[in-house]
Amino acid sequence: MNFAEFEASLQSPPAAYLVITDQDYLKQRVLESCRRQVDDSARAFDWNVFDLKKDNVHAVINSARTMPWMSALRWVYVRHAEEGEEVLAAYLKDPAPRTVLILEANRKSRKWPEIPTIEIEGRFDCAQWLRARARKQGYSITPQAAETMVELVGDDLQRLDSELEKQMLYSGDSRQIDVESVLALTLEARERDIFELIDAIARRNAESSLKILNRLISSGTSPQQIISMLYWNFRRLLVAQERFKKGEAPFPVINSLKIWTYRGKEREIARYPRHLLEQVLLRLRETDRLCKTTGMNPRIHLERVVIDTCRGGSV
């Protein structure tokens, strides 16, 4: 079931739920929805949260078997439920009639009976999630703006929700979110470092490039996000060069390609060696593939791109 179906089912909940997702944001929303089912005054008695990485599974069972004191139902939320697979399997065969047990796990157990499951499998469409989330709040975000936000921020729903909240505040009475506003806010803090990194790579300055790269990662930008932003921006610079050569006026080109940081710096764009831009794009594409198919730390792949490009190694 999806989250909306889960919330609808809370009116008449089953004896247990299973939560399987790698999104901390979704896990937290499920937990908060369950906690709201118990009045504030009763939570000390009828609401419990356990983590089987540190708590004993038998404490979970004792809590689940205890009759609710002040509520119609007792609610028990269990993180890392797979750690107590055997004991929980025995409980689920004969669950307490006045307890709702929520099991947060990284997989389904074959030993557990069928449980209503809140699950996200495969590729999650974050852009579609953003559009639905904005609509629910009475705002509108264009498909292109949603895709751009995912490309820049990544697929962590917690971070996307935070960025969306900023966009909604920024939109004011229009309640419309477009690509321009996404770029204006989301890129404001990181764009300067990204373009400094691009410039350092173009000047083949490995020391400066690695220093800026470390600053970006230390500020919370993941290697995958940096790869995405570098590829996107190097590609735009290459397109800009091609359009300059065709005789197009610089300002309209920079404006249409949204190369904000390079306004008034047309000569810098034209000065970058075309073969270098092409090499970097090929390396970044290969790096993205390696990050998705190997277990090596993505940062190592990214540092390799920087060092190889600055040293002029072969693609």
Describe the structure.
The chain is of the alpha/beta class and 315 residues long. It has three domains: 3-119, Rossmann fold (3-Layer(aba) Sandwich), CATH 3.40.50.300; 126-186, Helicase, Ruva Protein, domain 3 (Orthogonal Bundle); 191-311, Zinc Finger, Delta Prime, domain 3. Helix content is 57%, strand content 9%. The chain has 16 helices and seven strands. It has helices at residues 3-9, 24-35, 43-46, 57-64, 85-93, 126-136, 143-153, 157-171, 179-186, 191-202, 206-218, 223-245, 250-256, 266-271, 274-293, 298-311; strands at residues 16-20, 47-51, 74-79, 99-104, 117-119, 140-141, 176-177. The protein has a five-stranded parallel β-sheet, sandwiched between helices. Strands 6-7 form a two-stranded parallel sheet. Helix 6 packs across helix 7, helix 7 runs parallel beside helix 9 and helix 12 packs antiparallel against helix 15 (274-293).
Low-confidence segments, ≥5 residues, pLDDT <50? Answer: none
Mean pLDDT score: 85
The number of helical segments is 16
Rg, rounded, reads: 25 Å
Looking at CATH, which topology of the largest domain would you report? Zinc Finger, Delta Prime, domain 3
Biggest sheet strand line-up: 2-3-4-1-5
Number of strands: 7
Mind telling me which CATH architecture of the largest domain this is? Up-down Bundle
Overall geometry comes to: elongated
Helix content: 55-70%
CATH class of the largest domain: Mainly Alpha
Largest sheet: 5 strands, parallel
Order of helices and strands: HEHHEHEHEEHEHHEHHHHHHHH
Termini Cα gap: 46 Å
- Fraction in beta strands: 5-15%
- Number of discrete domains: 3
What structural class do you assign from the helix and strand content?
alpha/beta
